[in-house]
Amino acid sequence: MSTILVVDDEPQIRRALRTALSAHGYATIEAGAGEAALDAAASRQPDLVVLDLGLPDIDGVEVIERLRGWSDVPVIVLSVRDDQAGKVKALDAGADDYLTKPFAMEELLARVRAALRRTERPGSAPATLRFGPLAVDLARRLVTDDGELVHLTPTEYDLLEALLTNPGKLLTHAWLLRRVWGPNYGDESHYLRVYVRQLRQKLRDDASSPVYILTEPGVGYRWLPDPDPDPLRT
Amino acid sequence: MSTILVVDDEPQIRRALRTALSAHGYATIEAGAGEAALDAAASRQPDLVVLDLGLPDIDGVEVIERLRGWSDVPVIVLSVRDDQAGKVKALDAGADDYLTKPFAMEELLARVRAALRRTERPGSAPATLRFGPLAVDLARRLVTDDGELVHLTPTEYDLLEALLTNPGKLLTHAWLLRRVWGPNYGDESHYLRVYVRQLRQKLRDDASSPVYILTEPGVGYRWLPDPDPDPLRT
DNA sequence: GCGGGCCGTCAAGATGTCATAAAGATCGAC
DNA sequence: GTCGATCTTTATGACATCTTGACGGCCCGC
């Protein structure tokens, strides 16, 4: 089941969206303002965001920009204004779609399906990724090493997930902090040191000759191996 | 450069779209009917399809369905009809977006950018530049030489990026210093000597007979080779 | 051929970052 | 309220990178 974050300052609109979405089998999270939306996107990791541009605290376009700093979650924008410039700005800031209020709920649902369909396909969502002796079940948040269950705290797991879902990519300190700790973080790189250390210890990795997590001094960290090809498929 | 397949039975609309798209740096292919569109999508492998639903031979929704049988290329639908049922049908058939005529060209372009941005991400377009044995993946910040990972410090990488994103161009000392070290620099050409030296060493380049970085005495440096053509495309 | 400037090369010190360990602070379960 | 687990914070030595200075070679003008 997919989880959708609904961001709108008007409770009755949130309610209408929640009703329609849950009737179609989606779980919903709600936020009434921009900061709360960013927090929720970080902590709850929704599969899609429905975002009203008119928010009380921060401009909707800024919400998109800040979200895109650490997340690729699809964003469908709602707006009362039908101006072209606003559409272009929101789409170029990183929105995936733009609907003008009032809109037909059927159309929103179809656009939600289209957006979710896109993120489903690539990688065909292999429930469990393997890297040599290491296996990570993303759906169950379970990690095993040589078949033995590795116990990770929530933060440790979030960090591991952020790393291994971007194999080969250099992830900066600020990106990792925002992705794991939330949008209000970015300078606390000592957190990363502590948690990378714990992860490496639990995965039997060595900082000086790493198999999994490579330190890029002054910049960030990099998950080294690509996932093993799925032996069940051909 | 991205290639866009424009499907519409009215030549003047094709012409308008072609003009606008090529003015923004896209290559265009055109088709006036459904069968021709499917042929073109198969043989030319466009990065995006702009599809008018009203086609003379087959229904636009059927075009989408048949296309989706073997391709995940993003499809933006254009239609004169504003009916909800049609939108839902087209989106559920596999379309990524739906615009009602008449539409603002600026909006279409923004939606094109949004659709292309999404497909950039996954492995399909690695965005990796090759220069003989050297491969630079700008998105992952990854440099390999003969398949071996080359470790670069942040400054070294920034300098490399500044050079190879301007192949053949003469880059002055002051320009490079400002680009890599920031706007308050410009006279410290000594820095460049040290870091160019380190880059050359790591890339196995020789100052006296350079393959990559050419010294232009008294002026600056020049990245010699153009990127190799992508062997995956034709 | 002589000197000055520019470049390439090397290496050492300064600076900041990282790995590691361990001590407080916080939170939730019971 | 106590306990255990987790998160946050702090301290220290080790390390990587950046900065800086020194030196020799080369080219060019004089």
Write the layout of secondary structure elements.
The structure is a homodimer of 234-residue chains.
Chain A: E1 3-7, H1 11-23, E2 27-31, H2 34-44, E3 48-52, H3 60-68, E4 75-79, H4 84-93, E5 97-100, H5 105-120, E6 128-131, E7 134-137, E8 142-145, E9 148-150, H6 154-164, E10 170-172, H7 173-181, H8 189-202, E11 213-216, E12 220-223
Parallel strand pairs in A: 1-2, 1-3, 3-4, 4-5
Antiparallel strand pairs in A: 6-7, 7-8, 8-9, 10-12, 11-12
Helix pairs in contact in A: 2-3, 6-7, 6-8
The structure holds a DNA duplex (30 and 30 nucleotides).
Walk me through this protein's architecture:
2 copies of one chain form a homodimer. The first copy, chain A, has 234 residues and is α/β, with parallel strands linked by helices. Helices cover 40% and strands 21% of the residues of chain A. Chain A has 8 helices and 12 strands. In chain A, the strands form 3 sheets. Chain A has a 5-stranded parallel sheet with strand order 2-1-3-4-5, sandwiched between helices. A 4-stranded antiparallel sheet of chain A has the order 6-7-8-9, with no helix packed on it. Chain A has a 3-stranded antiparallel sheet with strand order 10-12-11. In chain A, strand 7 (134-137) and strand 8 form a beta hairpin. Chain A is elongated and about 55 Å long. Chain A starts with a strand and ends in an 11-residue tail after the last strand. The model of chain A has no long low-confidence stretch (mean pLDDT 91). The A-B interface holds A 72, 84, 87-88, 91-92, 94-97, 104, 106-107, 109-111, 113-114, 117-118, 121-123, 168-170, 216-219 and B 72, 84-85, 87-88, 91-92, 94-97, 104, 106-107, 109-111, 113-114, 117-118, 121-122, 137, 139-142, 153-154. The structure holds a DNA duplex (30 and 30 nucleotides).
